[in-house]
Amino acid sequence: MLRRLAPAAAGTLALACLAAPAQAANPAVMFTKVYYDSPGKDTRSNSSLNAEYVVLLNTTKKAIQLEGWVLRDKTGYKYRFVPFLLKPGKTVTVRTGSGNDGSSSVFWNRKQYVWNNTGDTAGIYRASDLKRIDTCSWGSAGDWTNCK
């Protein structure tokens, strides 16, 4: 048996549906973690430099070609991706030091640290128009931050 809602109840139901906030969609590529203060003393050894990194996640159901995309800090240090296909739901770790790029890690090949331990902002920018896709910021507490 079908029942009709009283006009007042129907109006309340309609307002409840309209009042629910919309969830913001995740960016196609987003930061999940930044390890900005590598463990131990900052010796600038390659192992110490590679313990400083960011992790990016493809949140879509399609592979994203990151060639030409730019990762940067607020000072202006930039890492430009070479051809790298980030598969759906997968992550890539961008390490500050040197190494051989693979399917889940790439290397900035720097001899100095990028991310400031006292606070910084990491940004990822799309290749085609350098539109900012996502950022992650932190203060001076801790060694790493979960971005989302």
Taking the sheet with the most strands, its summary is: 5 strands, mixed
Helix content bin: 10-25%
Distance between the termini: 47 Å
Count helical runs: 2
What is the typical, i.e. mean, pLDDT? Answer: 88
Summing up helix and strand content along with how strands pair, one would put the structural category as mainly beta
How much of the sequence is in beta strands? Answer: 25-35%
Strand arrangement across the biggest beta sheet? 8-7-2-1-11
Sketch the topology as an H/E string, one letter per element. Answer: HEHEEEEEEEEEE
Explain the overall architecture.
Helices cover 12% and strands 32% of the residues. It has 148 residues and is mainly β. The chain has a 5-stranded mixed beta sheet, with no helix packed on it. Strands 5-4-9-10 form a 4-stranded antiparallel beta sheet, with no helix packed on it. A two-stranded antiparallel sheet has the order 3-6. Strand 4 and strand 5 form a beta hairpin. It starts with 6 loop residues before the first helix and ends with a strand.
List the helices and strands and how they pair.
Elements: H1 7-19, E1 29-35, H2 46-50, E2 53-58, E3 64-65, E4 70-72, E5 78-80, E6 85-86, E7 91-95, E8 105-107, E9 120-125, E10 132-138, E11 144-146
Parallel strand pairs: 7-8
Antiparallel strand pairs: 1-2, 1-11, 2-7, 3-6, 4-5, 4-9, 9-10
